[in-house]
Amino acid sequence: MLHGIREQWQDTWLDEVAVPLERDGLTVSERGRVTWVRPPLRSQSQDLSGLRDPSGILAELQRISRDLAGDPTGAKQLIEATAKTVLLERGLTNDENAKVPILVKQAQKALASIAPGPGGTDAVQKPLSYREGRLAVEQGLPVGGFSAGPGMKAGLAALAHLYGNAADRPDRPTVSGAGVLTVGLQTPWRTVSDPAVTPSCDTDARNESARSPVAVIMHFTLHDGIRIDYNDQGEGPLAVYAHGALLSRKAEDELGMLNWEAVETLPERRFVRYDARAHGASTGRPDPEDYRFERFAADLVELLDHLGGTRPVTGMGASLGCATVLHAAVNAPALFDRFVLVIPPTAWETRAAQADNYRMAAGLVAEHGVGAFTAAAAAAPIPPSLSGLPYPPRELGVHAELLPALFQGLAASDLPPREKLGELTQPTLILALADDPSHPRSTAEQLADLLPGAELHVSSDSAGVRAWGDRVARFLA
Predict the structure, then answer these.
(1) Are 374 and 428 members of one domain?
(2) Where in the sequence is the domain holding 6, given as residue range(s)?
(3) Which residues belong to any copy of the AB hydrolase-1 domain (predicted)?
(4) Integer CA distances (angstroms), 176 to 15, 159, 168, 200, 422, in order
């Protein structure tokens, strides 16, 4: 049809095609695109979970995206259909009576062959079948350079988020025109926001009981206008994790220091990770005062207030995130029930030398650009404990234009006074490296002495580091 329009065929051929289509509720645009004028209604008795054809799943996704709140049962069934189709095309068996979250997890593992490729794109590492590849494209996954683009309105994660654990709950969150696609981030499928159709999550309309077992990317705006992006998944007591400086959720996942799968699959646990201001998908501004430890701590407290739920919560952080949690805790100790402190930064006596390094880095970037800093970082010796990891990270997780301000803010920061930390009585897990001068063992050991409920583990090789995720999960269980 499109070829005929382009070639400007004569006679009445277009009418002969268009009129029957219009009778069936379809229309043909000037460019030859066929779309529904009157989408067919689905019989509520029709079970969509039996769909196995990618085109059929896509058609139902498109239909249901026009009224997500009107067919929650269909949303659940489409999640089930998608997961079972993936398992079928990968040659795996599935239990027809398995619950949807279990099927989703199995499908995620089956698609472990889909991983981030060069430059942050998604590439297929193993051959996919025609049907499987078509389903991946139709769900928004770039395959072979092609992507579904902004036209897709509902992916697996958005539907899972909508229905939570019960499809017919009246208190599930309302999302209009959801634009969350499921592709492959830290778990084999990544949830990414489509700016053209992403719902605003700057609202308190979410209900605590309607959390999804699948991570959903959300955001909210701090009082000073900075937007914070975060992942929110699971139900139950809340644990919040803050990453290190120069990193982000994505950069930390690529680094592989913390495998979050063991934590994410804990039953009855809500888990949130976020990008700090100026990092990852969050925004920032070129003011050094914005990047002092105290400012990051205030952001964390504001995020916790936004997230709602029961109190106290578990505070977790690495490096800068560790400092963030501790500053928040000394100001509001009743807010936290326990801590996970990963690679604590330089502090007190060792902080002055690190502050000088930050100031030199700020000058280097200001004078010679970000490339000069990344080249210097790449040439620095790698601690033996990190030698088995992709360290340093392939790319910075911070906005390049904000690097000088970030460095200056970090240079003016330190951990809270020792006497204040000694007043914290919460159980604490401290994970440290044996040989990283930027995150000295001495800081971790001092924190272990200061915090009455602390348990310290020091790793001297990458095998020990890779076990940290399981260790954290056992501590939280």
Answers:
(1) yes
(2) 2-36
(3) 260-349
(4) 36, 12, 17, 9, 48
